[in-house]
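user: Kindly work through both lines:
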Amino acid sequence: MNENLIKCLMGLALAGFLVWSCTSPKNEKETMEKETVNFKVKVNEIKVGNKSAKVFHLDNGNGMEVEISSFGGIISKLIVPDKKGNSENIVLGYENIADYDNNDYYFGAAIGRFGNRIANGRFDLDGNTYQLATNDGDNHLHGGLLGFNRVIWDAEFEEGEKSMKVKMKYISPDGEEGYPGNLTTTLTFELTADNRLLLEFLSENDQPTIVNLTHHGYFNLSAMREDVLGHELKLYAPKYTPVDDGLIPTGELKAVSGTPFDFTEPHLIGERIADVPGGYDHNFVVKEAHSDELVKMAELYHEASGRVMELYADSPAVQFYSGNFLDGKVTVNNVTYNQYMGLCLEPQTFPNAPNEPSFPTARLNPGEKYSHKIEYRFKTR
């Protein structure tokens, strides 16, 4: 055989081997990733009163699904697997999205402009006094009579390689519920292939104002087979803020050690709840100042199902509410929502922060951006 021809054939063989060795593993990996990610989405339009809203149903193909409404930024269903692989809904909510028009319990809702309570519905800013709606006795709660939980958000769906997103936007006009300035907020929900649900709030305002946004899901890892008193909770909070009879913080930061508020080691929620008049509805301090660091705030566990929910956020604190005001007026799928049927873990800045100079500030100035990230991670054990 001609020597030049032999060299040519050997060169072609070597080139072919190099092409295969460089591209084959990459293509194999990409193919495997695409085969294991099986996203599904459904988008429906529904009526809430005389308004139209979108409902997004996201399925990550790994046993986890979430249903999100552009009315109120509401998570109406959150379906996760148990230790046997059975996927069930673990959040309280109404049977139909339209029923959320009278959502006095704030089931699954986006909360704003200010989550939690402001004493007497009043705060001062730069020498001006602002009077807000008093919708919780003498106090302002969760944004007032028309909070973010009762408005229609502009919403769209976006799919990536490893997650699905629903992006929402709402512009709260100057003076809405008494708050100053035009506040523009975007809220992104992201469901990942590895069973995480991420929320991100971003806000800007054209006047000095206050902002404290959060989400108000009621969780029950038993899929509502029982109440939450048998759930095990760990809170990464060495302090909490004691409250008065109106659930307004006294201004003190108190160590949880030696009290029924000490969840630095796991405890059953019902273990000491009798020692807390009215049940748990308190702000637990994870960080005493704002930072961008995403930290673990809580871990919730239900033994029978094996479900574990880990909560991460970049806010200073988390409100733990044990469902004290659930009163049996709502029944869904033959389950009556009596007291303690669900619990809330709401990352936030401190309640009544605008009236407590020692608390982390809730102020937002023009030109600044408010950012709040929340992440739920689900697994079994």
